[in-house]
Amino acid sequence: MNINAIKSKVDAVINQYGTEIKVYRDIYSEDEYGCKNLDENMTYIGTIKGIIDNASSSRLPTKTNERQGIIELDASATLYIPYEKDILIQEDDYLEIDGVYYRVGIFLDIVHYNLLYEIPIERIELNE
Q1: Distant-in-sequence, close-in-space partners of 115: CB < 8 Å, separation ≥ 6
Q2: Distance from C-alpha of 107 to C-alpha of 119, rounded to nearest angstrom
Q3: Is the pLDDT score of 39 beyond 60?
């Protein structure tokens, strides 16, 4: 199995069909007692491309939020991004996809050949 050939195909598909996704992160510092302090809330980190699978969240209950419109409660989806050694996003980052915000879950290298990450993401409602 030629892993490099497969990786180039995976990268090409995501680059061609993927969605532009903005990545945000909370920035913390640690005080002299070892406690984490929030320094910056939702700091823009950069943009990535990925494919979103939200097929399982189509029939969830909704509620309306003035800032984000209709919110699906407990909505989750799966993000697929190409494997990179030094990846831009981290667990607990925030993603903005078409004006909707998600929190990043735990990464999973789904085929164990460093080809593709499968990342659960959960839709969140921003505080007004």
Answers
A1: 3, 6, 7, 10, 82, 83, 109
A2: 5
A3: yes
pLDDT given for residue 75 in this prediction = 73
Q: What is the pLDDT of residue 70?
A: 56
Surface-to-core class of residue 32, CB atoms within 10 Å of its CB (0-12 exposed, 13-18 middle, 19+ buried): exposed
pLDDT at residue 105 above 90?
yes
72 neighbors 62 (Cβ within 8 angstroms): yes
CA pair distance 93, 121, nearest whole angstrom: 10
3-state DSSP call for residue 106? coil
Nearest by Cα to 102 from 92, 111, 112: 92
Q: Is residue 121 a contact partner of residue 94, using CB atoms and an 8 Å limit?
A: no
Residue 66's pLDDT is what? 60
